[in-house]
Design brief:
Strand content: 5-15%
Shape: elongated
CATH superfamily of the largest domain: Reverse transcriptase/Diguanylate cyclase domain
Number of domains: 3
CATH architecture of the largest domain: 2-Layer Sandwich
Distance between the termini: 34 Å
Structural class: alpha/beta
Helix content: 40-55%
CATH topology of the largest domain: Alpha-Beta Plaits
CATH class of the largest domain: Alpha Beta
Oligomer: single chain
Number of helices: 14
Length: 399
């Protein structure tokens, strides 16, 4: 998407100056709107660059701060002011602070620059950018949906977008969830665009190659294995941005393993999606996970095996689960913490804020109920697996 920072590439804006909102330069510009009145809501949809010229600035009730607050509320991308006599002559510190606090780029140009040249040039720029984005979408979705396109054709499509499929590559998937309350129409699309634009900026800062696209509440993309460290740094910055600017979101990133055969690259996409499923099942937030970090959960992701998993859990933990339900105890939780703390009574007591003699009693009771010796390594392994599976199935059933 054409971004605010790209305005500097337009010859018609050779005298453009940024006066506030530097941290919002990654925001995309969907189109341009030249304000004709002091009310914006019925004319814009979000993502527009607002132009404030004389017809508006000369209105008796014109208040720049009020107008910019509405533009920010409507998720417009930024604003361009025409500066000069009988236009806007002064900009208050409160307006500059408003734009800086909301990462809302505020630009200025001399009043006598011909806007007709700017409208023509930015129209071409946005259209060209949309064309190249369509090409990038084709590459990504042709791989995911296994459309009948040869590897050479996919490589040619990617090359037309400036991406090379030499070497090995990863798929990534960014997924966010809005809170159930407080949603407004178009909010999902606006946030998706905002995160997409920031992610592009983070990639560019790392000088990393990538292809990416969006659908619904997902951002999906491909990057070369050689840029793995740079890309993961960009993901880390993106998560920091989400925490600071969209704290209401649940947001996670999944990364598939590197694949060298372009016709098998869909496997990496499926692995990235499984990372997102893992985060959802365990109610994780603000995580950036690679598939090889899932460990044992890689074995559990095939839900067709659920009856086998349930049988294993029953054999290993069934007695303990029913005992807790009947007696309102927490022996399963105690066992889990005991194993997590390497079977150390004192550390388990500290983790549960419980006296160590109480933990000793519980462990003895667990061994009696399960008829096992927790000093046996093979017993501990089976119980650890059963606890992992139990947590996996319980969380999945709650989705």
């Amino acid at each position: 998407m054409f971004q605010c920072k790209d305005l500097y590439t337009l010859s018609s804006l050779s005298k453009l100056k940024l006066i506030a909102g530097n941290n919002g330069l990654h925001k995309g510009i969907r189109w341009v709107y030249k304000a004709e009145s002091l009310s914006l809501s019925q004319w814009v949809h979000g993502g527009e660059l607002l132009i404030i010229s004389r017809p508006v600035s000369s209105e008796p009730n014109f208040n720049l701060s009020v107008l910019l607050k509405e533009a920010i509320h409507l998720n417009m991308s930024g604003a361009l002011l025409l500066i000069g006599p009988n236009y806007i002559e002064k900009i208050s510190k409160s307006v500059l602070s408003l734009c800086n606090e909301n990462d809302f780029p505020l630009f200025a140009i001399p009043w006598n620059l011909p806007l007709v040249d700017f409208f023509e040039e930015i129209g071409h720029a946005i259209s060209n950018n949309n064309f190249y984005q369509s090409t990038r979408n084709d590459v990504i979705f042709n791989i995911i949906f296994e459309n009948h396109i040869s590897a050479s054709a996919l490589k040619l499509q990617a090359a037309n977008s400036g991406y090379s499929f030499e070497g090995s590559h990863h798929f990534f998937l960014l997924h966010f969830i809005l809170p159930e309350s407080g949603q407004t129409a178009g909010m999902e699309q606006t946030i998706s665009n905002n995160l997409y634009e920031y992610l592009h900026q983070a990639f560019s800062e790392q000088d990393a190659s990538f292809l990416s696209s969006t659908y619904s509440n997902h951002i999906i993309g491909i990057f070369p294995d050689k840029d793995f460290s740079e890309i993961t740094e960009a993901f880390s910055k993106t998560m920091d941005y989400v925490c600071q600017n969209h704290p209401q979101l649940t947001c996670n990133i999944g990364i598939g393993l590197a694949v060298s055969d372009i016709k098998k690259l869909k496997q990496s996409y499926e692995q990235a999606a499984e990372c997102i499923n893992y985060c959802n099942k365990l109610n994780l937030n603000h995580q950036s996970l690679c598939y090889n970090q899932l460990g044992l959960y890689q074995l559990f992701s095939d839900l067709n095996q659920t009856p086998l998993y349930e049988s294993f859990i029953e054999n290993q933990l069934g007695v303990l689960i029913r005992y807790d339900a009947d007696n309102h105890t927490q022996l399963v939780e105690t066992l889990s913490l005991y194993l997590q703390n390497n079977c150390n009574i004192l550390h388990t007591a500290d983790a549960t804020y419980t006296h160590r003699n109480t933990i000793k009693y519980r462990i003895t009771r667990i061994e009696e109920l399960l008829r096992v010796d927790l000093q046996d390594a093979s017993v501990r392994l089976n119980l650890h697996l059963a606890l992992y599976l139990h947590q996996f199935i319980v969380n999945y059933s709650d989705l």
